[in-house]
TrEMBL record:
SUPFAM superfamilies: Porins (SSF56935). It comes from Dasania phycosphaerae. This is Porin. Residues 1-25 form the signal peptide. Keywords: Coiled coil, Signal.
Amino acid sequence: MNINRVAKTIVFAVVASSFSTAALAEPSVEELAERLERMQQEMDQLKQQLKNSATKEEVLVIKKDVATAGEWLQPDTLIHMAGYADVGYTDSESEDGSFNVGTFAPIFHFQYRDLVMLESELEFEVGDDGETETNLEYLTIDWFINDYMVLVGGKFVSPIGQFRQNLHPSWINKLPSAPPGFGHDGAAPVTDVGFQLRGGFPIGNIRTNYAVYVSNGPELKAEFEDGEYELDGVEAEGFGADGDGEKVVGGRLGIIPFVGFELGLSAASGKATVTSIEDGDSSALSDEGARDYDVIGADFSWQYKAFNLRGEYVETEVGADTGSGTAASEGATWETWYTQ
């Protein structure tokens, strides 16, 4: 619409109205001048508003810019870096004291919305000979199915007991080393490669957490002593291949009856095969049979203000191999426990 035309029409209407009511109101010339001045001011304001108003195209561009800026406030992806490291001095009863660089463990998280997360931890250690050892502690892809269930796939920390999955980092575990039997080559499993379903749910006023998994089986180590073979240890450190094709199924159920106290029960069962000989030639092994492999465990944790009391027990039992394998021998049992 032409603004000047609108202005002329309004002015004409005002003047006509003034003349039509002249006989009644008989306004003075000054009053008519004031009315015309007010109308002119209103028309100037209308022109300015029309001049400053945005077109539809300009509004769409502004909306697009606002939406783009909002993506930085609520991104679909998140990246987080964490980790821990420790240095110290260790003086064991039967060894000379030494300074050491214990562990440097960077942790990486990548999350897409509330659906999927990738998490990984690398571990760098300096050995007694000065060589740097690098290990992949864990790497998993987690799918958040709902508020009570997460599907985990990859190499994950063993859910058997509490220590490996919750307490093993040096900034949490205040002791110079892991409790006997809970480190590498111990009675308690360290890591697994497979799939795990974990989460938690309430039962009335009681809270619970759970983990159920299936993974590649561990490997056994034998030694030759006094003219015969016997089992020397269990290596349960998340192997990327299953030598005997037999899987392990296990899990843990944690019960929290009240705030600060948790009781956990763990179990795993499957098969394991001898794959190496301690201080010997592992290529001599042949026809090794898959042995029964069973793990049971129990743990508790009680925290009251700054005081924390916890303990754990794990027993690993490996069955006998009565076949014709090179390292065929009786079974063995390893058990360990600690309180802190």
